[in-house]
Design brief:
The protein is mainly beta. The chain has helices at 2-20, 122-127, 223-228, 283-291, 445-468; strands at residues 29-31, 35-37, 40-49, 60-68, 73-74, 78-86, 89-98, 102-109, 116-119, 134-139, 146-157, 159-174, 176-184, 188-196, 202-207, 212-218, 231-239, 250-254, 257-258, 264-267, 274-282, 299-306, 314-317, 324-330, 334-335, 339-347, 360-367, 371-379, 387-392, 399-406, 416-423.
Protein backbone atom coordinates (compact mmCIF):
# COMPACT_ATOMS: atom_id res chain seq x y z
CA UNK A 1 0.00 0.00 0.00
CA UNK A 2 2.79 2.44 0.88
CA UNK A 3 4.38 1.74 -2.49
CA UNK A 4 1.12 2.73 -4.19
CA UNK A 5 1.05 6.02 -2.30
CA UNK A 6 4.66 6.74 -3.21
CA UNK A 7 4.08 5.93 -6.87
CA UNK A 8 1.07 8.21 -6.99
CA UNK A 9 3.11 11.12 -5.64
CA UNK A 10 6.01 10.24 -7.92
CA UNK A 11 3.76 10.28 -11.00
CA UNK A 12 2.29 13.63 -9.98
CA UNK A 13 5.76 15.03 -9.40
CA UNK A 14 6.95 13.61 -12.70
CA UNK A 15 4.21 15.42 -14.56
CA UNK A 16 5.24 18.66 -12.84
CA UNK A 17 8.89 17.98 -13.70
CA UNK A 18 8.28 17.38 -17.38
CA UNK A 19 5.95 20.37 -17.57
CA UNK A 20 8.62 22.71 -16.19
CA UNK A 21 11.96 21.30 -17.21
CA UNK A 22 11.93 22.75 -20.73
CA UNK A 23 12.27 26.30 -19.50
CA UNK A 24 15.11 28.05 -17.71
CA UNK A 25 13.65 31.23 -16.18
CA UNK A 26 13.44 30.59 -12.46
CA UNK A 27 14.92 27.08 -12.68
CA UNK A 28 18.37 25.60 -12.21
CA UNK A 29 18.15 23.28 -15.22
CA UNK A 30 16.67 23.19 -18.67
CA UNK A 31 16.19 20.43 -21.24
CA UNK A 32 15.47 21.74 -24.72
CA UNK A 33 12.87 20.13 -26.99
CA UNK A 34 14.28 17.56 -29.48
CA UNK A 35 15.08 18.73 -33.00
CA UNK A 36 16.65 17.12 -36.07
CA UNK A 37 20.31 17.72 -36.88
CA UNK A 38 20.85 15.85 -40.09
CA UNK A 39 19.10 12.52 -39.50
CA UNK A 40 19.58 12.51 -35.70
CA UNK A 41 16.94 13.64 -33.25
CA UNK A 42 18.99 15.76 -30.84
CA UNK A 43 18.28 17.38 -27.49
CA UNK A 44 20.50 19.51 -25.27
CA UNK A 45 20.31 19.72 -21.48
CA UNK A 46 21.95 22.32 -19.28
CA UNK A 47 21.99 22.43 -15.48
CA UNK A 48 23.71 24.32 -12.69
CA UNK A 49 25.25 22.69 -9.61
CA UNK A 50 24.65 23.15 -6.75
CA UNK A 51 20.94 23.86 -7.09
CA UNK A 52 21.03 26.53 -4.37
CA UNK A 53 24.00 28.82 -3.76
CA UNK A 54 24.37 32.00 -1.76
CA UNK A 55 25.89 35.34 -2.69
CA UNK A 56 29.33 34.27 -1.47
CA UNK A 57 29.46 30.95 -3.26
CA UNK A 58 32.91 29.57 -4.08
CA UNK A 59 31.97 28.47 -7.56
CA UNK A 60 29.33 27.26 -9.96
CA UNK A 61 29.34 24.27 -12.28
CA UNK A 62 27.41 23.96 -15.50
CA UNK A 63 26.77 20.52 -16.96
CA UNK A 64 25.76 20.34 -20.62
CA UNK A 65 24.94 17.15 -22.49
CA UNK A 66 24.34 16.88 -26.23
CA UNK A 67 22.15 13.80 -26.47
CA UNK A 68 20.48 11.53 -28.98
CA UNK A 69 16.83 11.97 -28.03
CA UNK A 70 15.91 8.47 -29.22
CA UNK A 71 18.64 6.47 -27.44
CA UNK A 72 19.15 8.93 -24.55
CA UNK A 73 22.91 8.59 -25.06
CA UNK A 74 25.40 11.49 -25.32
CA UNK A 75 26.63 12.20 -28.85
CA UNK A 76 30.46 11.96 -29.04
CA UNK A 77 32.96 14.34 -30.64
CA UNK A 78 30.80 17.36 -29.95
CA UNK A 79 31.92 20.96 -30.39
CA UNK A 80 29.86 23.78 -28.91
CA UNK A 81 30.22 27.54 -29.14
CA UNK A 82 28.72 28.84 -25.91
CA UNK A 83 27.92 32.51 -25.27
CA UNK A 84 26.40 33.70 -22.00
CA UNK A 85 24.49 36.92 -21.29
CA UNK A 86 23.02 38.57 -18.21
CA UNK A 87 20.52 41.22 -19.10
CA UNK A 88 22.01 43.13 -22.03
CA UNK A 89 25.61 42.33 -21.06
CA UNK A 90 27.77 39.59 -22.55
CA UNK A 91 29.37 37.41 -19.85
CA UNK A 92 31.64 35.14 -21.90
CA UNK A 93 31.98 33.32 -25.20
CA UNK A 94 34.18 30.31 -26.02
CA UNK A 95 34.53 27.13 -28.09
CA UNK A 96 34.31 23.88 -26.09
CA UNK A 97 35.00 20.30 -27.21
CA UNK A 98 34.08 16.96 -25.69
CA UNK A 99 34.89 13.46 -26.93
CA UNK A 100 32.00 12.06 -24.91
CA UNK A 101 29.36 14.73 -25.53
CA UNK A 102 29.38 15.60 -21.83
CA UNK A 103 30.56 19.08 -20.87
CA UNK A 104 31.43 20.13 -17.32
CA UNK A 105 32.28 23.82 -16.93
CA UNK A 106 33.62 24.81 -13.49
CA UNK A 107 33.47 28.55 -12.85
CA UNK A 108 35.58 30.33 -10.24
CA UNK A 109 34.12 33.85 -9.92
CA UNK A 110 36.37 36.89 -9.58
CA UNK A 111 35.32 40.52 -9.28
CA UNK A 112 37.54 41.75 -12.12
CA UNK A 113 40.20 40.75 -14.63
CA UNK A 114 40.14 38.73 -17.82
CA UNK A 115 38.27 35.45 -18.18
CA UNK A 116 40.50 32.40 -18.74
CA UNK A 117 39.49 28.98 -20.07
CA UNK A 118 41.60 25.89 -19.28
CA UNK A 119 40.64 22.37 -20.26
CA UNK A 120 41.39 19.80 -17.58
CA UNK A 121 44.26 17.67 -18.89
CA UNK A 122 45.88 20.74 -20.42
CA UNK A 123 48.68 20.07 -22.92
CA UNK A 124 48.37 16.28 -22.57
CA UNK A 125 44.82 16.41 -23.92
CA UNK A 126 46.05 18.15 -27.05
CA UNK A 127 49.04 15.82 -27.52
CA UNK A 128 46.87 12.73 -27.44
CA UNK A 129 44.08 14.32 -29.43
CA UNK A 130 41.62 13.95 -26.56
CA UNK A 131 39.10 16.47 -25.31
CA UNK A 132 37.70 15.76 -21.87
CA UNK A 133 34.94 18.35 -22.02
CA UNK A 134 35.93 19.48 -18.49
CA UNK A 135 36.97 23.13 -18.27
CA UNK A 136 38.06 25.46 -15.46
CA UNK A 137 36.92 29.04 -16.07
CA UNK A 138 38.14 31.97 -13.96
CA UNK A 139 37.10 35.60 -14.16
CA UNK A 140 34.15 37.93 -13.51
CA UNK A 141 31.66 35.16 -14.38
CA UNK A 142 28.69 34.09 -12.23
CA UNK A 143 29.81 36.40 -9.42
CA UNK A 144 26.18 37.35 -8.79
CA UNK A 145 22.85 35.58 -8.95
CA UNK A 146 20.00 36.11 -11.37
CA UNK A 147 18.92 34.93 -14.79
CA UNK A 148 21.61 33.98 -17.30
CA UNK A 149 20.77 33.31 -20.93
CA UNK A 150 22.86 31.15 -23.23
CA UNK A 151 23.25 30.92 -26.98
CA UNK A 152 24.66 27.50 -27.80
CA UNK A 153 25.77 26.61 -31.32
CA UNK A 154 26.52 23.00 -32.25
CA UNK A 155 29.23 22.93 -34.91
CA UNK A 156 30.35 19.25 -34.79
CA UNK A 157 28.79 16.01 -33.51
CA UNK A 158 29.43 12.30 -34.07
CA UNK A 159 32.88 13.12 -35.43
CA UNK A 160 34.98 16.27 -35.25
CA UNK A 161 35.11 16.44 -39.05
CA UNK A 162 31.31 16.19 -39.25
CA UNK A 163 30.35 19.86 -39.34
CA UNK A 164 26.77 20.81 -38.55
CA UNK A 165 24.91 24.01 -37.81
CA UNK A 166 22.31 24.23 -35.08
CA UNK A 167 21.62 26.95 -32.49
CA UNK A 168 19.87 26.68 -29.13
CA UNK A 169 18.75 29.32 -26.64
CA UNK A 170 18.58 28.40 -22.97
CA UNK A 171 18.27 30.06 -19.57
CA UNK A 172 19.54 29.18 -16.09
CA UNK A 173 18.64 30.98 -12.87
CA UNK A 174 21.13 31.24 -10.02
CA UNK A 175 19.46 32.28 -6.73
CA UNK A 176 20.26 35.65 -5.19
CA UNK A 177 19.72 36.03 -1.43
CA UNK A 178 18.76 39.21 0.43
CA UNK A 179 17.75 39.72 4.05
CA UNK A 180 15.22 42.03 5.69
CA UNK A 181 15.25 42.66 9.45
CA UNK A 182 11.86 43.31 11.05
CA UNK A 183 11.44 44.81 14.52
CA UNK A 184 7.94 43.83 15.59
CA UNK A 185 6.61 45.23 18.90
CA UNK A 186 4.78 41.97 19.65
CA UNK A 187 7.19 39.36 18.32
CA UNK A 188 10.60 41.03 18.51
CA UNK A 189 13.37 41.10 15.92
CA UNK A 190 13.18 38.66 13.02
CA UNK A 191 15.03 38.25 9.76
CA UNK A 192 13.16 37.49 6.56
CA UNK A 193 15.05 36.10 3.60
CA UNK A 194 14.06 36.97 0.04
CA UNK A 195 15.38 34.81 -2.79
CA UNK A 196 15.23 35.88 -6.41
CA UNK A 197 15.83 33.82 -9.54
CA UNK A 198 15.48 36.54 -12.15
CA UNK A 199 17.41 39.66 -11.16
CA UNK A 200 18.83 41.41 -8.10
CA UNK A 201 16.24 43.10 -5.89
CA UNK A 202 16.43 46.59 -4.39
CA UNK A 203 14.55 48.86 -1.99
CA UNK A 204 13.70 46.13 0.50
CA UNK A 205 11.38 47.68 3.10
CA UNK A 206 8.90 46.69 5.78
CA UNK A 207 5.75 48.74 6.33
CA UNK A 208 4.78 48.28 10.02
CA UNK A 209 1.34 49.86 9.49
CA UNK A 210 0.26 47.66 6.57
CA UNK A 211 2.52 44.83 7.80
CA UNK A 212 3.79 44.40 4.26
CA UNK A 213 7.13 43.29 2.84
CA UNK A 214 8.12 45.39 -0.16
CA UNK A 215 10.93 45.17 -2.72
CA UNK A 216 11.62 46.03 -6.35
CA UNK A 217 13.35 44.26 -9.21
CA UNK A 218 14.59 45.67 -12.53
CA UNK A 219 12.38 44.45 -15.35
CA UNK A 220 12.10 45.16 -19.06
CA UNK A 221 8.39 45.52 -19.76
CA UNK A 222 8.83 45.47 -23.54
CA UNK A 223 6.63 43.05 -25.46
CA UNK A 224 9.75 41.44 -26.92
CA UNK A 225 11.09 40.59 -23.46
CA UNK A 226 7.71 39.31 -22.22
CA UNK A 227 7.50 37.02 -25.25
CA UNK A 228 10.86 35.50 -24.34
CA UNK A 229 10.41 34.88 -20.62
CA UNK A 230 8.77 31.86 -19.05
CA UNK A 231 8.45 32.57 -15.33
CA UNK A 232 9.40 35.16 -12.71
CA UNK A 233 9.90 33.46 -9.34
CA UNK A 234 10.34 35.08 -5.91
CA UNK A 235 10.72 33.12 -2.68
CA UNK A 236 10.13 34.73 0.74
CA UNK A 237 11.26 32.80 3.82
CA UNK A 238 9.33 33.89 6.92
CA UNK A 239 10.32 32.75 10.44
CA UNK A 240 7.57 30.64 12.00
CA UNK A 241 7.94 32.70 15.19
CA UNK A 242 6.86 35.92 13.44
CA UNK A 243 3.25 35.46 14.46
CA UNK A 244 1.46 38.07 12.35
CA UNK A 245 2.93 36.57 9.19
CA UNK A 246 2.04 32.93 9.90
CA UNK A 247 -1.43 33.09 8.34
CA UNK A 248 -3.51 30.89 6.08
CA UNK A 249 -3.66 33.39 3.22
CA UNK A 250 -1.54 36.22 1.78
CA UNK A 251 -2.22 39.10 -0.58
CA UNK A 252 0.51 39.98 -3.06
CA UNK A 253 0.85 42.91 -5.44
CA UNK A 254 3.04 43.75 -8.43
CA UNK A 255 3.19 47.44 -9.32
CA UNK A 256 0.16 47.97 -7.01
CA UNK A 257 -1.89 45.39 -8.93
CA UNK A 258 -3.15 42.47 -6.86
CA UNK A 259 -2.11 39.14 -8.33
CA UNK A 260 -4.40 36.07 -8.25
CA UNK A 261 -4.22 33.72 -5.27
CA UNK A 262 -3.17 30.85 -7.55
CA UNK A 263 0.20 32.58 -8.07
CA UNK A 264 0.95 32.44 -4.31
CA UNK A 265 2.03 29.11 -2.83
CA UNK A 266 2.80 28.30 0.82
CA UNK A 267 5.38 25.65 1.75
CA UNK A 268 5.47 24.64 5.42
CA UNK A 269 7.49 21.45 4.91
CA UNK A 270 10.84 22.32 3.34
CA UNK A 271 12.39 24.13 6.34
CA UNK A 272 11.85 23.64 10.06
CA UNK A 273 12.34 27.25 11.18
CA UNK A 274 10.80 29.00 8.16
CA UNK A 275 7.62 29.09 6.15
CA UNK A 276 8.32 29.65 2.45
CA UNK A 277 5.98 31.77 0.34
CA UNK A 278 6.47 31.42 -3.43
CA UNK A 279 5.36 34.11 -5.89
CA UNK A 280 5.37 32.50 -9.33
CA UNK A 281 4.34 34.55 -12.36
CA UNK A 282 4.24 32.80 -15.72
CA UNK A 283 4.32 34.58 -19.07
CA UNK A 284 0.50 34.96 -19.37
CA UNK A 285 0.40 36.48 -15.87
CA UNK A 286 3.13 38.97 -16.75
CA UNK A 287 1.32 39.75 -20.01
CA UNK A 288 -1.86 40.51 -18.05
CA UNK A 289 0.05 42.79 -15.68
CA UNK A 290 1.56 44.57 -18.67
CA UNK A 291 -1.89 45.10 -20.22
CA UNK A 292 -3.26 46.49 -16.94
CA UNK A 293 -0.61 49.25 -16.72
CA UNK A 294 -0.39 52.45 -18.68
CA UNK A 295 3.21 53.20 -17.76
CA UNK A 296 4.87 50.19 -16.10
CA UNK A 297 8.29 51.82 -15.94
CA UNK A 298 11.43 49.68 -15.70
CA UNK A 299 10.81 47.52 -12.66
CA UNK A 300 8.53 45.13 -10.85
CA UNK A 301 7.54 46.40 -7.41
CA UNK A 302 6.45 43.51 -5.16
CA UNK A 303 4.42 43.70 -1.97
CA UNK A 304 3.37 40.80 0.27
CA UNK A 305 1.15 41.07 3.32
CA UNK A 306 -1.09 38.85 5.46
CA UNK A 307 -4.59 38.79 4.05
CA UNK A 308 -7.54 40.15 6.05
CA UNK A 309 -9.26 36.86 5.23
CA UNK A 310 -8.42 33.33 6.26
CA UNK A 311 -8.40 30.69 3.56
CA UNK A 312 -10.25 27.75 5.01
CA UNK A 313 -9.96 24.86 5.01
CA UNK A 314 -6.20 24.56 5.11
CA UNK A 315 -5.29 21.20 3.59
CA UNK A 316 -2.20 19.08 4.10
CA UNK A 317 -1.15 15.51 3.37
CA UNK A 318 0.16 13.27 6.10
CA UNK A 319 3.86 12.50 5.78
CA UNK A 320 3.20 9.08 4.27
CA UNK A 321 0.54 10.51 1.90
CA UNK A 322 -2.01 8.05 3.30
CA UNK A 323 -4.50 10.79 4.26
CA UNK A 324 -5.08 14.48 3.77
CA UNK A 325 -6.52 16.68 6.49
CA UNK A 326 -8.75 19.70 5.94
CA UNK A 327 -8.57 22.03 8.95
CA UNK A 328 -10.37 25.27 9.84
CA UNK A 329 -11.08 27.15 13.04
CA UNK A 330 -13.47 29.72 14.39
CA UNK A 331 -12.99 32.55 15.17
CA UNK A 332 -10.48 32.86 12.33
CA UNK A 333 -8.01 34.71 14.55
CA UNK A 334 -6.90 32.70 17.58
CA UNK A 335 -6.79 34.95 20.65
CA UNK A 336 -5.09 34.51 24.02
CA UNK A 337 -7.58 33.88 26.85
CA UNK A 338 -10.30 32.73 24.43
CA UNK A 339 -11.74 29.45 23.18
CA UNK A 340 -11.26 28.39 19.55
CA UNK A 341 -13.28 25.69 17.82
CA UNK A 342 -11.22 23.54 15.45
CA UNK A 343 -13.00 21.61 12.72
CA UNK A 344 -11.20 18.93 10.76
CA UNK A 345 -11.90 16.24 8.21
CA UNK A 346 -9.64 13.30 7.42
CA UNK A 347 -9.97 12.69 3.71
CA UNK A 348 -9.04 10.16 1.07
CA UNK A 349 -5.96 11.73 -0.59
CA UNK A 350 -7.04 10.82 -4.13
CA UNK A 351 -10.78 11.48 -4.03
CA UNK A 352 -12.43 14.91 -3.90
CA UNK A 353 -13.90 15.65 -0.46
CA UNK A 354 -14.36 11.98 0.47
CA UNK A 355 -13.94 11.36 4.19
CA UNK A 356 -12.39 8.10 5.33
CA UNK A 357 -14.14 5.76 7.76
CA UNK A 358 -13.91 6.14 11.51
CA UNK A 359 -10.23 6.01 12.60
CA UNK A 360 -8.31 6.88 15.78
CA UNK A 361 -6.18 10.04 15.99
CA UNK A 362 -3.98 12.11 18.32
CA UNK A 363 -4.65 15.87 18.27
CA UNK A 364 -2.32 18.37 19.95
CA UNK A 365 -1.84 22.13 20.15
CA UNK A 366 1.74 23.04 21.05
CA UNK A 367 3.46 26.26 22.06
CA UNK A 368 5.85 26.69 19.15
CA UNK A 369 6.69 23.00 18.77
CA UNK A 370 7.29 21.99 22.41
CA UNK A 371 5.00 22.97 25.31
CA UNK A 372 1.59 21.30 25.21
CA UNK A 373 -1.45 23.59 25.36
CA UNK A 374 -3.97 20.85 24.56
CA UNK A 375 -3.89 17.12 23.79
CA UNK A 376 -6.66 14.70 22.93
CA UNK A 377 -6.83 11.10 21.77
CA UNK A 378 -10.04 10.48 19.83
CA UNK A 379 -11.76 8.73 16.99
CA UNK A 380 -13.26 10.41 13.95
CA UNK A 381 -16.94 10.22 13.10
CA UNK A 382 -18.41 9.44 9.70
CA UNK A 383 -20.11 12.83 9.55
CA UNK A 384 -19.60 14.90 6.40
CA UNK A 385 -19.44 17.98 8.62
CA UNK A 386 -16.20 16.75 10.19
CA UNK A 387 -15.05 16.69 13.79
CA UNK A 388 -14.99 19.60 16.26
CA UNK A 389 -12.58 20.21 19.14
CA UNK A 390 -12.74 23.25 21.45
CA UNK A 391 -9.42 24.51 22.81
CA UNK A 392 -9.12 27.16 25.53
CA UNK A 393 -5.94 29.20 25.12
CA UNK A 394 -4.13 30.63 28.16
CA UNK A 395 -4.25 34.38 28.60
CA UNK A 396 -0.48 34.62 29.22
CA UNK A 397 0.69 33.14 25.90
CA UNK A 398 0.89 34.79 22.48
CA UNK A 399 2.99 33.67 19.56
CA UNK A 400 3.38 30.74 17.24
CA UNK A 401 1.64 27.42 17.82
CA UNK A 402 1.68 24.05 16.09
CA UNK A 403 -1.54 22.11 15.49
CA UNK A 404 -0.46 18.49 15.21
CA UNK A 405 -2.26 15.35 14.02
CA UNK A 406 -0.47 12.10 14.80
CA UNK A 407 -0.96 8.33 14.78
CA UNK A 408 -3.87 8.40 12.37
CA UNK A 409 -5.31 4.90 12.24
CA UNK A 410 -2.51 3.86 14.64
CA UNK A 411 0.23 4.59 12.09
CA UNK A 412 3.22 6.54 13.41
CA UNK A 413 3.95 7.67 9.82
CA UNK A 414 0.47 9.17 9.34
CA UNK A 415 1.07 12.60 10.85
CA UNK A 416 1.19 16.24 9.86
CA UNK A 417 1.41 19.72 11.40
CA UNK A 418 -0.22 23.10 10.80
CA UNK A 419 1.44 26.35 11.96
CA UNK A 420 -0.74 29.10 13.43
CA UNK A 421 -0.51 32.08 15.76
CA UNK A 422 -2.11 33.14 19.04
CA UNK A 423 -2.67 36.91 19.00
CA UNK A 424 -3.05 39.46 21.73
CA UNK A 425 -6.75 40.42 22.00
CA UNK A 426 -5.74 44.02 22.74
CA UNK A 427 -4.42 44.35 19.17
CA UNK A 428 -7.11 42.29 17.46
CA UNK A 429 -9.16 43.95 14.72
CA UNK A 430 -9.98 40.84 12.74
CA UNK A 431 -13.42 39.86 11.39
CA UNK A 432 -15.51 37.60 13.62
CA UNK A 433 -16.17 34.89 11.06
CA UNK A 434 -13.93 32.98 8.72
CA UNK A 435 -14.02 33.25 4.96
CA UNK A 436 -14.81 29.57 4.53
CA UNK A 437 -14.60 27.64 1.31
CA UNK A 438 -17.06 24.89 0.51
CA UNK A 439 -14.58 22.68 -1.32
CA UNK A 440 -11.11 21.46 -0.57
CA UNK A 441 -8.50 23.12 -2.84
CA UNK A 442 -7.44 20.88 -5.70
CA UNK A 443 -3.73 21.50 -5.09
CA UNK A 444 -3.27 21.94 -1.32
CA UNK A 445 -0.21 23.57 0.20
CA UNK A 446 1.47 20.46 1.49
CA UNK A 447 0.97 18.56 -1.75
CA UNK A 448 2.96 21.31 -3.45
CA UNK A 449 5.67 20.89 -0.84
CA UNK A 450 5.78 17.13 -1.40
CA UNK A 451 6.01 17.67 -5.15
CA UNK A 452 8.82 20.20 -4.72
CA UNK A 453 10.79 17.76 -2.57
CA UNK A 454 10.36 14.88 -5.02
CA UNK A 455 11.05 17.25 -7.92
CA UNK A 456 14.33 18.27 -6.28
CA UNK A 457 15.30 14.65 -5.73
CA UNK A 458 14.56 13.85 -9.36
CA UNK A 459 16.78 16.71 -10.56
CA UNK A 460 19.57 15.63 -8.23
CA UNK A 461 19.30 12.02 -9.41
CA UNK A 462 19.31 13.11 -13.03
CA UNK A 463 22.42 15.25 -12.49
CA UNK A 464 24.25 12.44 -10.73
CA UNK A 465 23.59 10.16 -13.67
CA UNK A 466 24.81 12.82 -16.08
CA UNK A 467 28.05 13.32 -14.18
CA UNK A 468 28.69 9.59 -13.93
CA UNK A 469 28.55 9.02 -17.64
Amino acid sequence: MKLIYFLAIFIAASSLFFALRAYGDGLASETLPPSLIGKTNVTLSIGSVPFLIDNNHAGTQLNLVLMDADTQQPIPDATLVISAFKGQNAVFGHIFKSDSGNFLLSFYPQQSGNTTFNEQGGILSGLFGQDSGNYDIKGPVFNSGGLYRFKIEVITMGAYDNQVSKSYNAGISIPEYDNLTINDPSYGTHQIQIIGYYDRIHNILYDPVKKSINFTMPFDWSQQNINQLTVVHREIRIPRTLGDFVVTKYDAYVNDIKIPDKLISIDDYSMDAYRIVHLILYRPDVQTLFSDQQNPGKEMAFSLKPSDENKFPVVQFTRNAQYKIALSWNPPKILAGSTTEFNFKILDPYAANKTVGSIPYDFSVLEGSNGVIYHEVGRTTNSDSGNNINVSFPSNYTGSITIAFENLNDSSFASTEFPATVSNPATDNSPTTASAQTTVPEFPFASLAVLVVVFGLMISFTKVRLFQR
